[in-house]
Specification:
By secondary structure, the protein is α/β, with parallel strands linked by helices. It is about 45% helix and about 15% strand. It folds into two domains: about 10-165, 3-Layer(aba) Sandwich (Rossmann fold); about 170-260. The chain contains eleven helices and nine strands. Strands 2-5-8-1-9 form a five-stranded parallel beta sheet, sandwiched between helices. A two-stranded antiparallel sheet has the order 3-4. A hairpin with a 7-residue loop joins strand 6 and strand 7. Helix 7 packs across helix 9 (about 215-225) and helix 8 (about 185-205) runs antiparallel to helix 9 (about 215-225). The two termini are about 35 Å apart. About 30% of the residues are buried.
């Protein structure tokens, strides 16, 4: 698979650079599939910074961040988590979907992110670990309409004073992004798929539909075209069939939209 560079259509990398230079942590806000992770990875690569990342969920525990005791051949040791490792090394820490984490996890994280940039290893020796001066943290959150998300506590939100809003790009930019992932010439079909995706996104935004397709879907559609699949068939597989989990009425709504855009 060819490596695809992030298309910085709204100067997000410039904002990340300014935040990095001033030592300010960054929060990226936007729905799934808008390129948040790609943006962070490309920024770290361009800066030559080692990147440590963790994807939060209800199953994420403090031990994933801080570490845990282990017993090997009768010897107790402490395996440090990604947060501690990142602080010690001064690597970039990426906290993906941070507003999916439980309150106790966020509380422990908040300890490390305040102005002192330090945390006490109460699980081990009690050592106070202080982050290297160039330590940089970027977090992402999904809108509260996404399942499993919750509001960030105000004190934690204040740890990220630079906020980037990352929405779906304009149609012409989305076309440019999609074309980076495919080799064939299917501009007219891809443009139609992007219009379909935006129609579904707008319907989901006003709660007329349960699901909002992401950039991943428009890229997947184009890749199927590359393999010789007909446009309407690809649209059904990528955009239509997912709505069956919400019942026949929901599926039929989307199926009718696809038929109106791609024909019988």
């Amino acid at each position: 698979m060819k490596e695809v560079q992030y298309l910085d259509w709204n100067n997000s990398i410039q904002t990340l650079n300014k935040a990095y230079e001033t030592g300010l942590f960054v929060l990226i806000i936007g729905p799934k599939g808008t390129g948040k992770t790609s943006l962070v990875r490309d920024f770290a690569k361009d800066k030559g910074i080692n990147l440590e990342s963790i994807n939060f969920s209800l199953r994420t525990r403090e031990s994933h961040l801080v570490g845990t005791k282990t017993l090997t051949d009768g010897t107790v040791s402490f395996d440090e988590g990604l947060l501690i490792k990142s602080m010690r090394e001064g690597s970039m820490l990426y906290l993906d979907e941070i507003n999916s984490a439980e309150a106790d996890v966020l509380l422990r994280l908040d300890e490390a992110l305040d102005d002192r940039r330090q945390i006490a290893l109460k699980e081990s020796t009690g050592e106070v670990v202080k982050a290297k001066e160039n330590w940089f943290v970027v977090a992402t959150i999904n809108p509260l309409t996404h399942s499993g998300t919750k509001e960030l506590p105000p004190q934690l939100l204040s740890r990220f004073p630079v906020r980037i809003r990352l929405e779906y790009p304009p149609e012409e930019v989305e076309l440019e992004i999609v074309k980076k992932h495919v080799s064939g010439e299917h501009d007219s079909e891809i443009i139609q798929a992007i219009k379909l995706a935006n129609t579904l996104r707008q319907a989901a935004a006003v709660e007329e539909l349960f699901y909002s397709p992401s950039l991943r879907e428009t890229i997947a559609f184009a890749k199927l075209l590359d393999k010789g699949m007909a446009a309407k068939e690809a649209a059904n597989f990528v955009f239509g069939n997912v709505y069956t989990q919400w019942g026949d009425i929901e599926y039929q709504k989307v199926s009718d939209i696809i038929t109106s855009m791609f024909g019988n």
